[in-house]
Specification:
The protein is mostly helical and 195 residues long. It has 9 helices and no strands. It has 2 domains: 100 residues, Rna Polymerase Sigma Factor, Chain: A (Orthogonal Bundle); 81 residues, Winged helix-like DNA-binding domain superfamily/Winged helix DNA-binding domain (Arc Repressor Mutant, subunit A, Orthogonal Bundle).
Length: 195
């Protein structure tokens, strides 16, 4: 942790409400955007971030942070988002198994869509750190290759190599998927921006 984060974290561990509230207000938007990228639901993204912050506040005395505070919370938000997607997927399959809904074909596609999104986002999180950063800047922040290269201080060729590697890895996630139609739809939806 840098000195500023260390001071903030020690304040939170001492249960200093002002320090906690200030950090929450400063960082909420960043973590909200991260959660929303996964769940695509404003209310759910807010709940995920608030839940993570409450767990930080309640467990500050026992939590051990080996990286930075921001990285720790970011990872918790992403994990929370993936868990919510998994719950939605399971709930949907249970409803289908119970025979609810007249448009089972459509509902089944929606559930497969959610399951595939969980797989894809997990695969993105498993990319090497620099590759993941480049890929997210390209696909989620919609930055051009030159902008990414400039921000990260790397060559445009390196940016291209990271994106190509990421797409190949994610392609493997799709390769064994059983719904070609769904795969094509998801790829178009998630990767509709060119690189």
């Amino acid at each position: 942790m840098n000195p500023q984060e260390e001071t903030t974290w020690q304040g939170i561990r001492r249960k200093d409400g002002r320090v906690f509230e200030r950090y929450y207000k400063e960082q909420f938007k960043t973590f909200f955007v991260a959660a929303y990228t996964y769940v695509k639901d404003t209310r759910l993204a807010e709940e995920i971030v608030n839940d993570v912050f409450m767990r930080i506040w309640e467990g500050a005395g026992t939590i051990v942070i080996e990286t930075s505070l921001k990285s720790y919370i970011y990872r918790a938000v992403i994990n929370g988002s993936l868990n919510e997607l998994e719950k939605i997927r399971r709930k949907g399959w249970q409803q289908l198994d119970a025979g609810r809904g007249e448009e089972n074909g459509f509902e089944e596609r929606v559930m497969e869509d959610n399951e595939l999104k969980v797989r894809l986002y997990r695969a993105i999180d498993e990319l090497p750190e620099q590759c993941r950063k480049v890929f997210k800047m390209s696909r989620f922040e919609e930055l051009k290759q030159q902008e990414i290269a400039d921000q990260l201080g790397i060559s445009i060729k390196t940016v291209k190599n990271h994106i190509t590697y990421a797409l190949k890895r994610l392609g493997k996630v799709l390769a064994d998927w059983n719904s070609l139609y769904l795969c094509l739809f998801i790829v178009k939806e998630i990767f509709r921006r060119g690189h």
